[in-house]
Each structure stands twice: as C-alpha cells, then as structure tokens.
Design the sequence.
C-alpha cells in the first residue's frame, strides 16, 4: 500500500512538473527579431524602438538581426524557415508580403507562410524636391513636367517599392512622363536630389524630413504632422496610395497562446510613451491594428498591389 501511495505521489509530482514546463510563461528567453532592411534605415530604427519596448514589458531581450536584400524577401524567407515557436519574429513593412510575390519570381514563400501579429506604425511617403529646386509647389512641378515630357527624372528605393508604386500610379493619372532612377536606399537618393541630379523623389517622410529637401505633396488621405501645410494627394484629386504598413510577423504554425501574448504586448507597446516619443522623433505615424484587422488590411493590399502592378505593366523578374 505504501509503495502504491509513493508511486502515485511520484507520478503526480512528475505530471505537475511537466504541466508547469509545458505552460511556462512566454517569452522565457530572448526573441530574435528579423528586420529585412539595412541598419540605420527608418524602418530599422522604428523596429529597434518597438523591440526595446517589448523587452521592457516582457523582461526578455528582443535582439535585432538585419537580413536585407532582394526587396526584403531574404529576411522573410529566413522567417518562413524559422521554427514556429515564437522565438523568431520579424518587424517589417508590407513590401515582402504584399508586393514582392508579384514582381519577384524567385520568392520561396506565400502570404500564408506567415501570421501578421500586429500593425504598429504607418510609414508615410511624400513627393520631394531639393531645397534649391526651382519648383516651390506641386502645381509648378506638374506644369513644368507637362511642358517638358520625358525630361524629368525621379528616384525611389527601387521598382516595386511602396513609394515607386504610389508615384507611378500618380504619374499615370497626372499624365506625366519622367524617367525613373532606382536607388539602393534613401541615403543614396538624398545627395542626388539636393544637387538636382534628379528632379524629384517619392520617399518616406521619416527618411527625408529635415535633410535639405522640400515636400510638395503627401501620399495620404490626411496631412502629416511633420508637414501640416503640405497638401495630400487626396486633396489634389489623386489616389492617396497606401503607406508602408509596418508591424510584427511570425511564422505560420506559431502557437495561439504565443500569438495572443505578442499581440497583447504590441497593443501595450504602441500605447507607451517611449514608443510614441520615438515615433514622433522619427516622423512616423503610430497606428495599431490587432491580428484580425492587420491581416484583413494586408490581404486587401495584396490584391490591390497585384492589380496595380498589372496596370503599370511591371513584369515579374
């Protein structure tokens, strides 16, 4: 009888230990955060601000790993291949998920390879000229462009990027003919824009504000707090375009409890004074969406981008 009781106690204690281990709080160790862009990029700086606040709230480190290249698809391919246990996530705009699959044939993942955990901020784009440009307003630029078809050049961070697609749609609607010049990043665009080597650029407000350039129009429905006197494309009668929809992503198959924990923490982080202060300093617009709404918005953007890319006759490569 004593042996039976001892056996029962041992078994019960073992079961309790196993249950506790299987239900350990998340995260119990550092969480690797993939950022599919170069360090120092506007998205990278915001990702670091987001990760820092996650670390403060959870008590675990959220170290950033930059895996840039191929329109951010290298980083997302790495995320798709990661173990879906919540210890590898990505902070990224929508580019590798809703745009790249339509323009890059070699993409090895699909939309359903990931779970959009939360949207954290919107990276808004604008139309810029150098501060020494002769064009002081949007109307002056358009009038000059129409009088000199094919003479203007414009720069973006590459074919298929959010600013490239937004500006391409605007140019087509406005009836302007200009030569597109792709660059590796916004730091490479700036000197060319300031020196008037290129006529204008479609780029992020976060990357260009306060750096010797002049905004003429913002690709948005609402005016941006950094440029309250600058009109939006919507005000000017054009499509506002969709901003960079930035947030956190996890590999498909990540446990529901982990996803719920990340989503809840994300809501707290985006409401925190620390994150909002960082966003204000970087001219980024804080905008939280939970899993369901973020997924809905991204799927709509996936379909819209497929249609736009076809309309612009951009061929997959």
Sequence:
């Amino acid at each position: 009888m004593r042996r039976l009781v001892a056996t029962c106690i041992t078994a019960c204690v073992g079961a309790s230990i196993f249950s506790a281990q299987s239900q350990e709080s998340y995260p119990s160790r550092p969480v690797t955060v993939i950022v599919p862009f170069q360090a120092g990029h506007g998205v990278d700086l915001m990702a670091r601000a987001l990760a820092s606040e996650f670390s403060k709230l959870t008590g675990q480190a959220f170290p950033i790993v930059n895996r840039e290249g191929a329109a951010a698809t290298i980083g997302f391919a790495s995320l798709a291949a990661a173990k879906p246990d919540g210890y590898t996530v990505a902070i990224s705009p929508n580019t590798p998920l809703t745009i790249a699959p339509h323009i890059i044939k070699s993409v090895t993942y699909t939309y359903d390879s990931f779970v959009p955990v939360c949207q954290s901020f919107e990276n808004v784009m604008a139309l810029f000229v150098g501060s020494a440009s002769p064009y002081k307003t949007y109307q002056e630029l358009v009038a000059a462009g129409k009088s000199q078809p094919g003479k203007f050049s414009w720069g973006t961070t590459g074919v298929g990027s959010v600013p490239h697609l937004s500006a391409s749609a605007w140019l087509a609607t406005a009836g302007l003919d200009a030569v597109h010049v792709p660059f590796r990043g916004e730091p490479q665009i700036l000197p060319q824009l300031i020196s008037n080597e290129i006529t204008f650029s479609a780029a992020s407000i976060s990357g260009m504000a306060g750096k010797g350039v002049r905004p003429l129009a913002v690709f948005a429905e609402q005016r941006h707090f950094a440029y309250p006197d600058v009109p939006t494309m919507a005000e000017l009668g054009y499509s506002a375009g969709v901003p960079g929809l930035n947030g956190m992503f996890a590999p498909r198959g990540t446990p529901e409890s982990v996803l719920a924990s990340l989503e809840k923490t994300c809501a707290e982080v985006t409401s925190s004074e620390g994150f909002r202060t960082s966003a204000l300093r970087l001219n980024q617009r804080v905008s939280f969406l939970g899993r369901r709404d973020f997924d809905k918005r991204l799927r709509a953007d996936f379909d819209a981008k497929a249609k736009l890319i076809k309309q612009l006759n951009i061929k997959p490569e």
